[in-house]
Every structure is written in structure tokens, then in C-alpha cells.
Amino acid sequence: MHVFMERSIQHAKKILLILTPLFKEKADERKGGAGYEFSMIASELFDSLANNNKFLPVVRRGTYKLCTPTILRPFLACDMSDDHVFEQKYSELYSAILGKSSVERPECRI
Description:
Elements: H1 2-11, E1 15-19, H2 21-29, H3 32-47, E2 55-59, H4 64-67, E3 78-79, H5 86-98
Parallel strand pairs: 1-2, 2-3
């Protein structure tokens, strides 16, 4: 299982980190599978702190502060904790996955 997780993290172009208070606890304390996985993610993050385009934090339950592991605090996250704006946030997340801005600049027609 560990080899599978390591290879998956190494070869993935984008990884969604679904943030919840329980995930934060396991990640910060390096408990269980989530803790092991987060150890590998933390290692890769240290190598590319200035230009992280691979790991996309997504707040799903709780607040950013309550569910974000310490090492991820400098990064922006997509807040999908409110189901009332889920579709809008999903669109923003999809754009981030594709590496595009969720807001397009209008074309100038003069």
C-alpha cells in the first residue's frame, strides 16, 4: 500500500487535498494512512514551496484554520464547505485543476 501511495503522489500532475478537521489532526500528527501520505506530500512541498501548482487544498468541512495542516497554511484553498455555493466553487476548482483563471478577461472589440 505504501509503495502505491508513493508512486501515485510522484506521478500525479495534480492532487486534491480534501481538508477536514480529522484530516488536519492525522496529517499534523502523521497518524495512519493519511499521516503517511501527508509525510510524502510535505516532502514534495518543501522542494517547491515557491511555485506549488500540484497540490490543491479544498476545504470541505470546518473552517480553513480548523482543517488546514500547519504546512499548508501559506497556500490558498478552495472553500467548498458551503453547499449553497458548491457549483460556483466547483467551477473555480475545475479551473484551478486546468491551470486557468476562473474569471476570464473580456475581449476588447474596438
